[in-house]
């Protein structure tokens, strides 16, 4: 029984050991949504990239709401208010920090850290700054 317990505990401990790590910033564009219109295939891609940066960092519930509203406003400013409303609905439903997705709020941090809506500490903000200034490049 002890052997079974230790077998289960080691992988959990390994996840916990990396909980304070922040992966390099990556964006998938507009995730499960298109990046633009058929005529302008990347029309709102910059809006999504800025939104992804916020989601990568994570933070409080209010910060997420503000990020989602900035996305909506950015796409609206590009002349696409209907698309903007659809995108807002999608990110509000699909961006929860409690889902184990690659596009959840706080996706830069380990899912097993169970951050939820947690303000970033000064040390975490410094780590964000360092990661953005020195992104790891694939070999």
So what's the overall shape?
A: globular
Question: Helices and strands, in N-to-C order?
Answer: HHHHH
**Overall average pLDDT:** 86
Number of domains: 1
Report how far apart the termini are. 44 Å
Backbone CA Rg: 17 Å
Which percent range describes the beta-strand content?
Answer: under 5%
Name the quaternary structure. Answer: single chain
Keywords summarizing the entry:
mainly alpha; disordered N terminus
Describe the protein.
This protein is mainly α and 139 residues long. Helix content is 52%, strand content 0%. The protein has 5 helices and no strands. The longest helix has 17 residues, at 61-77. Mean pLDDT is 86; it is low at 1-19.
What does this entry show, briefly?
With 139 residues, this protein is mostly helical.
Strands, helices and their partners?
Blueprint: H1 2-17, H2 45-57, H3 61-77, H4 81-94, H5 122-133
Helix pairs in contact: 2-3, 3-4
């Amino acid at each position: 029984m002890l052997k079974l317990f230790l077998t289960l505990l080691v992988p959990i401990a390994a996840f916990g050991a990396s909980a304070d790590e922040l992966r390099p910033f990556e964006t998938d564009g507009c995730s499960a949504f298109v990046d633009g219109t058929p005529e302008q295939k990347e029309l709102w891609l910059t809006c999504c990239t800025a939104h992804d940066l916020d989601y990568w960092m994570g933070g409080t519930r209010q910060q997420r709401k503000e990020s989602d509203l900035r996305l909506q406003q950015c796409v609206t400013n590009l002349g696409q208010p209907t698309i903007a409303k659809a995108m807002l609905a999608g990110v509000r439903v699909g961006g929860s920090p409690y889902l184990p997705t690659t596009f959840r709020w706080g996706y830069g941090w380990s899912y097993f850290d169970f951050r939820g809506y947690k303000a970033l500490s000064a040390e975490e903000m410094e780590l964000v700054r360092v990661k953005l200034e020195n992104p790891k490049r694939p070999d």
